[in-house]
Amino acid sequence: MESCEEVVIVGGGIAGLATAVALKRVGVQSLVLERSQELRATGGALTLFPNAWRALEVIGVANKLVSLYTTFNKEHVTNLMTGDYQEISFTHDGLRDGLGVRAVHRKVLLEALAEELPSDAVRFSSKLESIKDEIIDGSSISTLRFEDGSTIRAKVVIGCDGVHSVVAQWLGLTTPVRSGRSAVRAIAVFPDGHGFERDIQQFVDDGKRAGIVPINDKELFWFMTHTSLPPEIEMVSDPESIQNLIIDNLAKGFPPEYINVVRHTDPTTLSWAPLMFRYPWDLLIGQTWRGCVTVAGDAMHPMTPDLGQGGCTALEDAVVLARHIASSSRSSSDGFEKAIEDYVKERRVRVAGIIAGSYLSGWVQQGGIGWWGGVVGRFVRDHIFYRFVFKRLVKVSEFDCGRLTCGEC
Known about the structure:
By secondary structure, the chain is α/β, with parallel strands linked by helices. The chain has a domain at 2-40 and 54-66 and 106-177 and 277-398: FAD/NAD(P)-binding domain, CATH 3.50.50.60. The protein has 13 helices and 17 strands. Strand 4 and strand 5 (85-89) form a beta hairpin. Helix 1 (14-25) runs parallel beside helix 11 (310-326) and helix 2 (50-58) packs parallel to helix 11 (310-326). The longest helix has 33 residues, at 333-365.
């Protein structure tokens, strides 16, 4: 079976759905192909900064979420090795503008995006196997072949298929690498209320960093990043075993309130995986587009979560892509190619910088890796990072990705 589409988006996560919504806003129809049987919500929740909220406002989704989640005023950082305490404010002008900083359920965000699309705009259980470029009637066409034997011909292909992107591999981008750290993430549920203030709590230790992020009065998002363990240990997938490993081992010596949060974990939200990233220079000089094929979100710029910018930059990508496609001459493949090229040129320097900043932030906050790295990392973290560096790094979240001026806007 073969069909033809103008724009095909591979991957129905945040980047894929947001790109489809943004394109719809400018009058461009697209088809989202998701390999899973339903919307994916791994990790339970994520924190969205002003740059993300500005993008959500542009595509008409922010209003669905702001009434459900309140903003944070500050973050408390406790050094468990020294007992030192520092406070980071989220109330200065740059972070207040753009609806502030809020934690949202990943599933709620995905559903809010999906509701903006026609019922037939997302096709589930579609596993991409290969891409082939062809010239048909003088125009560049991509033929996508799927595991079930079906094929789709598309004028534009946007890979939003995650860290292990098939589209990125086809383009020739280097495979993302391990950072030397891993992360456990989940949502804890307190039916009678958790009693935490609307502030982020963070704890740093030797080779570990953990946090508690309120979502609402009854739910908390919690995480722990740590120096990667032997593969045979990190292959454990049973939620109860992972939870016990955190309580009995990784979080030993952590405050009782953190342990209590872990004990209240909803096992369906728990995930444990190595933290991956793409070398920043690969985005600057690598093959991030070819003809009318490109990537967005984690498929383009996988990064560690230490600045909270993975989902935020994916939302930026969606707006920038739609703006360039809307302003292009879509009567020929040359118009689409120019739009894709301009999108990549606008995005690659910014996201390469955020990848580097996220890696640096995580490495320092976790106290470095290795003996010498640990000595240097802990010194920088304890005496320099939170006082001087972090405030500069977090300014990436004040970015405005621009507006859409066509179609429904």
